[in-house]
Amino acid sequence: xxxxxxxxxxxxxxxxxxxxxxxxxxxxxxxxxxxxxxxxxxxxxxxxxxxxxxxxxxxxxxxxxxxxxxxxxxxxxxxxxxxxxxxxxxxxxxxxxxxxxxxxxxxxxxxxxxxxxxxxxxxxxxxxxxxxxxxxxxxxxxxxxxxxxxxxxxxxxxxxxxxxxxxxxxxxxxxxxxxxxxxxxxxxxxxxxxxxxxxxxxxxxxxxxxxxxxxxxxxxxxxxxxxxxxxxxxxxxxxxxxxxxxxxxxxxxxxxxxxxxxxxxxxxxxxxxxxxxxxxxxxxxxxxxxxxxxxxxxxxxxxxxxxxxxxxxxxxxxxxxxxxxxxxxxxxxxxxxxxxxxxxxxxxxxxxxxxxxxxxxxxxxxxx
Length: 368
Description:
Radius of gyration: 20 Å
CATH superfamily of the largest domain: Periplasmic binding protein-like II
Strand content: 15-25%
Low-confidence stretches: 1-21
Shape: globular
Mean pLDDT: 92
Largest sheet: 5 strands, mixed
């Protein structure tokens, strides 16, 4: 989760200090739980965000290969780049996923639509590592359907070499003609609308259609300023300097900085979205017991730390948060003090009529 003003001002100065030292290497895993091969030969189908798990580069952990080694379970690993794409694939029923990792508001929707199984946490011995502040959240108040995986905030990434250092710490930069044809915006409705809603001072969960109309109008007004709408394509565009300013998730900024040290980041003064992505088991999962084993594996201290370092998001796992060898230990971007948090709003699942309304508006924005 992610965001702010004293923090914003200090950010550019602190970045070179905050972002160095990653690459904690694991030679042999020290596992907290025992894993057997009772399900050897079975397949676990995992559906996760792109760039959202440690994959073994630079002597780090290849999480899926390690899980396969310890359990004999084959991991079929698939990726998506928005909650809405994940939902459409899950609802389509073409593939039976055993593990999905949606965001809070989408989990709320999946629970309402009876698309998730309850998770037997008594079989997840590492569940006690989840920090209390990430339990009993609004989207799963009884902790029945989800196990927190990552926490994030949204901010603005910019290339200081291309923009200069005198950049307004506001969502309005995406509309600023100084960055015409070099600005990006999200290619999904909730996040894209949020950039406009924050400027307009709206509740991101408003049920007032006029609010959504106003936000859509602002997005249309700013479309001519954009180079494109993106999701994971942002990596190539920002890392190479093809684009100069874009909104994205703080954790991904830290990853991009490793490639291009001209990149900087701030939380906009109007406020931003905070989110929790969590591990869930769909109703039609075919390998429930393997899914529980995989969740337990993801919570292992070494695995959770490897993931937190690779992904760059804040972790809800106390074994990571309290690990002084963790390269983002007490990082001010990921773990700001309470006093430094920007104004934040969670997305909530919105009733179907309003959701259909803003999705239609989004189609109009894209075609404008």
